[in-house]
Specification:
mainly alpha; 4 helices
């Protein structure tokens, strides 16, 4: 991945972390956020990873749709 694309991707990911409320809920504690991400990664290593990922995908899709409706 090119450097500019990677930078843009990281900025977008940071925006999602902010938008999700995790920054506020953790008091912007980097160790807590990193711990949360490692916990999520461990969940995806479990036997029911496909189910977990499908749940997260549906929840994210609903959140994006709700945000789009409230913005219009």
């Amino acid at each position: 991945m090119k450097r500019r694309e990677r930078t843009r991707h990281l900025i977008e990911l940071g925006g999602l972390v902010q938008k999700s409320g995790l920054v506020e809920l953790t008091g912007d504690d980097r160790a807590a956020l990193y711990g949360a991400f490692t916990f999520l990664a461990a969940m995806l290593k479990a036997d029911d990873a496909e189910h977990t990922l499908a749940l997260w995908w549906r929840g994210g899709k609903r959140a994006f749709e709700a945000e789009a409706r409230s913005a219009s």
